């Protein structure tokens, strides 16, 4: 029998869907009424590739800065279930993937946590990657759940998200690892470690957005 919590989640999701249906639509970027995404906000979703290296040396290329319009649009896609926004965001991710994905490379995604998947009923990153034209190959799965990141220092956060993933075999292949937002890169580092342990030749990461430096220290709870 489903737990009370799962039932409660289902009721909340159903109510949210009903409200989304009845409430007038507003721009996900600026709140302008009667439009899902206005032309001004659409114009703000242009890839400005940003490259950085994680603490473990993994190269990460991000399409957008996670602030302003792009951050609001991605949040609405993820937290309000407005999946139609993937149509506007996917080409931005796709333009970076087009530069990065080599001929024999496998494209895969960082899996959502089980709780996030239950809450949303879909995987935003997989949706974005699929829409961008690269069907993701499911390689990674979580073998344990990290605890809440809130209140943890940088080193403790890294330890908390270490050893979370295992990968299916990918011997000798280059892998492009995709996630929605990179903050410290600790989750990407752990996913890349799992891919290399499974035989990946080279791993490079691509994210839709990167958290600007001044927000790194804010200790966001859900992204790493
Ligand atoms: Zn707008």
From TrEMBL:
Coiled coil: none annotated. It comes from the Bacteria. SUPFAM superfamilies: PRTase-like. InterPro entries: ComF/GntX_DNA_util-trans, PRTase-like, PRTase_dom. Residues 170-212 form the Phosphoribosyltransferase domain. Signal peptide: none annotated. It holds the Pfam family Pribosyltran. Belongs to the ComF/GntX family. This is Phosphoribosyltransferase domain-containing protein. It comes from Microbacterium testaceum (Aureobacterium testaceum). The lineage of its organism: Bacteria, Bacillati, Actinomycetota, Actinomycetes, Micrococcales.
